[in-house]
Amino acid sequence: MKTILSVLIPFCMFSLDCLADDPVLEIGSRRELFVDRFLIDELEHAELKLHPPQLMPAVTPPRPHGHYATVLKSDRGYQFYYRGDTQPGNHWKKGWEQYHDGEVTLYAESPDAIHWTLPHLGIYPDHPTFPQGNVVLMNEFLVNHNFTPFIDTRPGVPESEKYKALGGLAYQPNQHLEVKQRRGPGGLKAFVSPDGIHWKPLQQEPVIPEEWGKYFDSQNYAFWSESERAYVCYFRRFIKGYRGIARTTSQDFIHWTPLVKMQANLPNEHLYTACTQPYFRAPHIYFALPTRFMAKRGSATDILFMSARGNSQFDREFTQSYIRPGIGQDGWANRANYAAIGIHQTGPAEMSFFLTGGRRYVTRLDGIASVNAPLNGGTLVTKPLQFAGDELEINYSTSAAGQILVELQDAAGIPIPGFSLDDCEPIYGDHIARIVKWKQGSNVSSISGKPVRLRFKMQDADLYALKFNQRK
Q: How far apart are CA 445 and CA 450, in angstroms?
């Protein structure tokens, strides 16, 4: 017996030490989505599944000239920014300087992201190419090629700088040197606005130097990150000979940290745009809808989905296309598919985003991806986590025959009394926000702040997101 105890005691102490060393995820009351494996410890007979969006019929969409567009949501409704040209059909092969000199930024707005109007703004003299007068920026060389605004949510930002934007290109090495001498250096320039319509430069010189970009000929988007407490910019850069993505951060939108190259590309893959933005229902998670560019297939493009958390590298859980070029030649034309910046809620259970030409795609709230299980059943077990709140909300969908059961366990995986699978009320149906209940009710405040694991037993079901709420 003494020999057995001498073996078991150290073993038990070792096991407790290992348990104590297990990292515990602090999720508080954040909404967590299953677009990556951040929460996942075990999947048995279940998988992460990407859900393609649905193309909606167009009513009166803006018709962007060029590849880059931005859709913002504000107290004015939906604001659509896209590129135009003073000379329709203009092309850089007809003259690089005159091509970029003719670019302008156009504007449309809508109350519902479906019916769009082109307001006569009167900011610039009427131009025959734009009789509606919906020009918000003109005569800003290189900037209008990819002018990309955002609404600044940084606490304390002045009203005069409620909107910010970046735009610009870099000169290619040993080309257009005379143009550069006359026009000044390339790079990304910063602009500010009180309303998203009347813009002025934040300063005359570029805030991000042209040497960083090679060549910034993409949509380079910045935003205020709540989780990083900084401005973040994802921009285009060639990496190891392929079109790729880099990022930088700033505290004042003028001075930026040294660039970090993102390891986003798969082998031999071009990513033409980054299209990276905080997800509005979980802003600590960044959604990216980059354009994959197939140079040897007629420059065809499709849309991917990636995600990132703060300053981490992109997660490439899903390598397949999120939006394919589609049936017909239009989608297979040269650079025909680019996602616009902007993912917004457009209905009680839906969110929308846009592609080149004003195409609108719709998907479920939080519904980019899910943990999916078949009818014969599957299981998800989370890593140890600590939450704040007193009820568990899930976004889920089942078939008529399917269901979900939820169990709360301690960090060692032992079911907590009163919160076992046998205690859980079967969950079936389709809800964006369903509160999980056990026989004793939904109140989980007794284990708030303690390390726990969640176990989901699922049949013919999808689990999109979870969140712990503090009841009022």
A: 10
CB 281 within 8 A of CB 365: yes
Beta bridge partners of 302: 292
Rounded CA separation 371/208 (Å): 40
Q: What is the pLDDT of residues 3-58, one digit of tens each?
A: 444 434 443 343 344 444 569 999 999 999 999 999 999 999 999 999 999 999 87
Closest residue by Cα to residue 463 from 35, 155, 86, 165: 35
pLDDT, tens digit (0-9, with 9 covering 90-100), for 251-267? 999 999 999 999 999 99
Q: Measured between alpha carbons, how far is 63 from 83 in angstroms, rounded to an integer? A: 9
Residue ranges, comma separated, of all CATH 2.115.10.20 domains in the chain are: 54-365
Sign of CA dihedral 171, 175, 180, 182: negative
Quick check: 82 and 403 in contact, CB under 8 A?
Answer: no
Identify the CATH assignment for 23-51+370-469 out of 2.60.120.260, 3.30.300.130, 3.30.365.10, 3.30.420.40.
2.60.120.260
Computed over its alpha carbons, how large is the radius of gyration of the chain? 25
Please list, in sequence order, all residues whose beta carbon lies within 8 angstroms of the beta carbon of residue 349, skipping any fewer than 6 positions away: 364, 365, 432
